[in-house]
Amino acid sequence: MANYIPSVGMEVHAELATRTKMFCRCPVSFGGEANTRVCPVCLGLPGTLPVPNRAAVEMVLRTALALNCKIAMESVFHRKNYFYPDLPKGYQVSQYGETNPLGYHGFLEIPTAEGGLKRITIRRVHLEEDTGKLMHLPNGGSGVDYNRAGTPLMEIVTGFNPETGVPDISTPDEAKEYLTQLRLILLYLGVCDGKMEEGSLRCEPNISIRPFGVDKLGTKSELKNLNSFRSVQLGVAFEVRRQTAVLDEGGIVLQETRGWNEQREASFAMRLKESENDYRYFPDPDLIPMQFDEATIADLRASLPELPLAKLRRYQDSLGLSTYDASVLVADRDWATYFEACVQLGGDPKGVCNWMNSEFARLLNESGQAAAESNVTPAHIVDLLRILAEGQINGKMAKTIFADSFESGKLPSELAAGGGQITDEDAVREIVRGVLAANPAIVEKFRSGNEGVKGFLVGQVMKQSEGRANPQLAQKLVLEELAV
Ligand SMILES: [Zn+2]
User: Fold this and answer.
1) How many CB atoms are located within 10 Å of the residue 295 CB?
2) Higher model confidence: residue 292 or residue 1?
3) Where do the domains of the chain lie?
4) Domain 425-483, what architecture?
5) Residues surrounding ion ligand 1 at CB below 5 Å
6) So what's the pLDDT on residue 232?
7) What are the helix (H) ranges across 137-202?
8) How far separated are the first and last CA of the chain, in Å rounded?
C-alpha cells in the first residue's frame, strides 16, 4: 500500500426533513404500507404539474451556506432522463451544471488526528427528488413502492482541491470523519434526520489509487450499499487494498460500480461503467427558474445555528473542556443545548459536563428517555452540584439523591434537607468510637502493624452513618481514635 496514494471522492444523498414531497403535497415518512403516500404528481401521470416545495429549497440553501458554498442566485431544475422502474416519470428532476446547483465551490473542515483542521473541497450541493424502491415479493417477482418517490433529496459532492488538483480525502479515516462532520452539520441545521440504517442519509464513495510521483488520478471504482459509518471506513480501506493488489499483479483497475457485503466485509463487482451515461439533461419546462435576492440569502445566513466545529472550539477555548468532553457534548445537539442551559444557570462547565456524561447519561440510558423528557431539568443539575460543592452532601450521597430526583422530579437540595452530610466532628467521632468498640480484634490487628484494616473501619463508619458521614472526616477521626 505504501507505493500508492489513494484518492476518495464522496457523494452523499440526504433526504430532506420536510413534511411533504418535493413537487406535491404527499406526506414524507419512513416505512408504512407500499404505495399509500402517492398522488398523480409523484406517480408521474400525464397532465399533472409539479409545484416546488419552498421549505426544501431553503434547506438546501442553508446547507450550502453552512458548507461555505457560493449560491446560485439563478438556478434551474433539469430533467435527468433514464429508464428504470423506480422512476415513474422516466426522468428524475435534478440540477445539472457546474454553477447551476443551489450551492457550489465550498468546503467543509474536518478535525485531524494532530489536532488541526483539514479543508475538504465541496464541488456542489444540489436539490433533486428521490426515486421509489424496488422490492422482491414473498411469492416471487418484484414490485415497486412509490412512497419514497418524489421525496426531496439533497446531493452533496466533494471536489478537487483547487491547488493540488486532486481530491482532499486520501485515507479511510478521513472519509469517515468527513461523513461524521457532514451528518452532524445536517442534524444541527435540522434538514435531515441522518439515519443511515433507514437510508435517509446515503454515502457513495469513489476510490482510486495512483503511484507516488504520478499526478494523474487512477481509474476509480464507486461503492454502494454502505449503511453505516463503519462500513464506509471499511469499504474505502478494502478498495484501497483490492486496487493495490490488482496493480501489484500487473493488472488494471476497472471503472465499475461495486456493492458492499456487510457480512464478508468485502466489495463485489455490480456493473462496469465503460462510459458516462448520457442522461440528456435539459431544463424542466414545467418548472420556472428559481431566483433569489441578496436579502433572502442574508436572512438564511443569519438563521444558521452555531455549527458543531465552532461549538467544539468554544467549549475548549472558553469553557476549558477537554477535546474528549467537548466532542461528547457536541455530538448531540440536544445534549449540547442542555449543557449550555446548565452553564447559563451558573453551573461549572467541567462539573456539569462530568455529571451529565456519567450519572445523568446512565439513568437516561436505563430509562430510555431523552434529557428533555426526564424529570431532571438543568436547574436540578446545577442545584445538585451546588450542594455538593458546599459540602452539604458527599459524592456518594449525590448519586443517591440524584437518582431520587430523577424519579420524583424533586430538587436535590429539598431531598438533602434533613438528611444532609454529617460534617459535625463530635457526631462523627461518636460513631467512630462505637465502631472501634464493636471491633476489638480489628483494632488489635491495626495496633500490631496491619494498617490495611483502617479501610474496613472507615467503611463501617460510613455504613453506620448510612453514607452521610463526610468521608475525609471519618478517615481522619478513625486514625485519631486508633492512635489513642
Ligand atoms: Zn404525491
Assistant:
1) 8
2) 292
3) 4-296, 306-416, 425-483
4) Orthogonal Bundle (1.10)
5) 24, 26, 39, 41-42
6) 95
7) 172-189
8) 72
